[in-house]
Amino acid sequence: MIASRHLADLRVLDLSRDGAAAGCARILALLGAHVQHVPVPYRPGIQALVRDHPWHTIVTDLLPSEARRAGLTPTALLTVAPVVVSVTPFGLDGPDAESADILRAFGPFGDRVASELAGAHAAAGALAALRWARGALRTVHVEVATFDVVASCLGDNLPRAICPLATQRSGDARRDIGARIEVLPCADGWVGIAAPTAVDRAHLAGLTGVDEVAVDDADLAALVRPWLARRSRWDVFSAAQLWRLPIVPVLSAAEAQLGEQRLACNNQELRAAHAFVPRSPFRIDVRQQHASTHGCRESSEPDPLDGRGSHQSTPRRPPTPSSQRASRDAPRLPLSDICVLDLGMVWAGPHAGRLLAGLGARVVKIEGPNRPDGTRPDVGCLGAFGDLNRGKASLVLDLAHELGREAFLRLVSRADVLVENFSPRVMPNFGLDDSVLSAVNSRLVMLSMPAFGSDGSWAHAVAYGSGLELITGLGTIGPDGRPAPAPVPYLDYLSGAYGAVGVLAALLARETSGDGVRLEIAQRDVACQLLRGWRSSQQRHVDRGVRIGDHMTSPSMLTAREIDWTSYVADFASDRHLAARELFTSRTTERKPCHHYARPPWRLHGIPFPDEGPAPAFGADSRPILEELARMDTEAIDRLVGAGVVVAADPDGPLRTRDRRLGRDDLPRGEP
Q1: Residue 36: enclosing H or E segment and its boundaries?
Q2: How many angstroms separate the CA atoms of 638 and 643, rounded?
Q3: How distant is the alpha carbon of residue 167 from its chain centre?
Q4: Which of its termini does the chain have fewer beta carbons within 10 Å around, N or C?
Q5: How much is the pTM?
Q6: Which helix or strand (DSSP H or E) is residue 426 part of?
Q7: Bridge pairing between strands 83-88 and 140-145
Q8: In angstroms, what CA-CA distances link 320 with 241, 260, 399, 404, 511?
Q9: pLDDT tens for residues 599-647?
Q10: CA neighbours closer than 13 Å in the CB half-sphere of residue 436
């Protein structure tokens, strides 16, 4: 794979000081954009630089009053660039738009995490706006508030804090994947264990020989502690991965970057002034039709203000889900002509698909008859599933069955994007590797988001975002000395945002080249972006009283044990600034489940938000998808339903079917 140069023709002016806006510009540079940085707000000659150069995108972090004093308001900047991206702590309107309460803007995260989240979502909004502006021949102002992004990345913490239906959730609460990961001691340190589903618990019983852990309400910590006490972190990790269990060793920042796993993950980091510089997480295979049309443009234009020089970073219409049919005649959205097949499971993959849906794409969520998404509830509050899958259609299709595979390839032939976050072995096990998919559709943009990448000795290892936090040295060290991930699975949200950015860049490049791509974003490579600038000194940094890893400023504010997390999150729902900005677009009542937790985490001024509906019921759109997109007749679909290959449910039917209970020897063929 090669690093992406998809944005090599994009000229970006970065008028930021630091933080989220700078993060947005850095991500665009990682994708090949020509980025020129000029410190603001007050520099002589800055208006001339802005006016006299042909910029495609301008990124700024000026507060409203600063922009007015400098003569660099979004309105003024849009006269010289088609897309202007404003990234500020609280946005450009509302009672706190000029607030200096930066810590409040970071919410439950530290400054690094909040800035990374906002920067990645801003980059997605910027590329979507650029695509729309090119087609509509109009300018677009993209507005991103760090506070909005943080509030939209709270997962199921927000509905659990405020939703009256939250107590109706059935099954083990630990099925809510993400922050619910147990950190337990072993012979030489700690390991993080996530076993939220019946499949995971059955496999954990097989791994440890303790049958009782397969019981839904079993106390995992008490039952597996003796087994762990006899084994090292790496022994536990190696054995658990043979059972496809997301169990990981807890590492310090120094161990994560200096140990054997650095090579195992192929994380070829560089060193500058003894500081850690992670590689780009974007890895691209381009299906080139005309190799001569590709390449990167080098530039050595000096920056007249900064003195540092320029920076060159090394007709199909899918079926409309039932929840969106009322908005068919809405104005064209940035991705309204794009069809996405979303195989993402649990968190990171679904979030990437959710962001694409929030830009108007028609997203088809595909689950297996016996393998529904692990966050799908049985009853009650929709929880994380409702947040990550709103606005999507639902197709339930068995990809392990030959007839299901054939139907899927018919869908691929008419799709634009495919998203999956399985381990690298899963798609080939289905007979659906990239060579098969590209033979069916050479213009397909395929996004793969494996935990550790597709090469190296860890390639086939599995982990959730909170586990990756622990294995990358980002875990918080609590007062009792126990490591812990953040209460919100922020790495999943960050990985999903990077995934959406990569897809948007690939779609922009495809419009010129006609080439499809396979885009790989290893979630651990995304996690390593948070270690940028980490230094291996003996100095201890303390962030609000919490020590992190081995000498790194804490990426998360406090652990769940140190604050009343539920009350803290509930404050977001009643915050006056978020209310004024209408971040939360739907309220929960006793009679109506919540399905809109937050609008998309950006404002594209001049482009309407899509009319998103709730997350779909299990198989609610199977028949119309197969009829309209796969071009299958009723008789053929009936045969698939009769054979159990397809589940076609009532749109108002149950949210899910229950997991099949597996024994320890019943290993699934295609689990993530």
Answers
A1: strand 34-37
A2: 9
A3: 27
A4: N
A5: 0.85
A6: helix 426-429
A7: parallel
A8: 39, 48, 22, 21, 24
A9: 889 999 988 877 778 888 889 999 999 999 999 999 999 999 999 999 9
A10: 13
Say if strands 57-60 and 11-15 run parallel, antiparallel, or are unpaired. Answer: parallel
- Of 180, 85, 160, 155, which is closest to residue 126 (Cα–Cα)? 85
Structure tokens, 353: 């698909």
Neighbours of 54 (CB within 10 A): 7
pLDDT > 70? residue 245: yes
pLDDT per residue as tens digits for the range 314-351: 334 344 444 444 344 434 889 999 999 999 998 899 99
Distance CA 304, CA 435 (A): 48
pLDDT, one tens digit per residue, over 644-662 is: 999 988 666 555 554 433 3
DSSP-assigned letters across all residues of 526-590: HHHGGGTT-B--SPPPEETTEEETTT---SBS--TTTTTHHHHHHHHHT-HHHHHTT-------S
Q: What does the H/E/C string look like for 133-185?
A: HHHHCCCEEEEEEHHHHHHHCCCCHHHHHHCCCHHHCCCCHHHCCCCCCEEEE
What tokens appear for 166 in the block?
């939250």
**Alpha helices per DSSP H over 323-395:** 348-357, 383-388
Which of 600, 672, 594, 554 has its CA nearest to residue 129? 600
Which phi and psi (to 5°) does residue 208 adopt? Answer: -90, -15
Task: Report which residue type is found at 281.
Answer: P
Q: Is residue 492 among the annotated active site residues?
A: yes
Choose, from 61, 176, 398, 492, the residue flagged as catalytic.
Answer: 492
Tell me what the mean pLDDT of segment 373-378 comes to.
82
Burial 95-106 (b: 16+ CB within 10 A, else e): ebbebeeeebbb
43 and 65 in contact (C-beta within 8 Å)? Answer: no
Give whichever of 50-54, 122-126, 266-270 has the largest mean pLDDT. Answer: 122-126
Q: Distances in Å between the alpha carbon of 359 and those of 199, 346, 355, 466, 596? A: 34, 21, 7, 27, 15
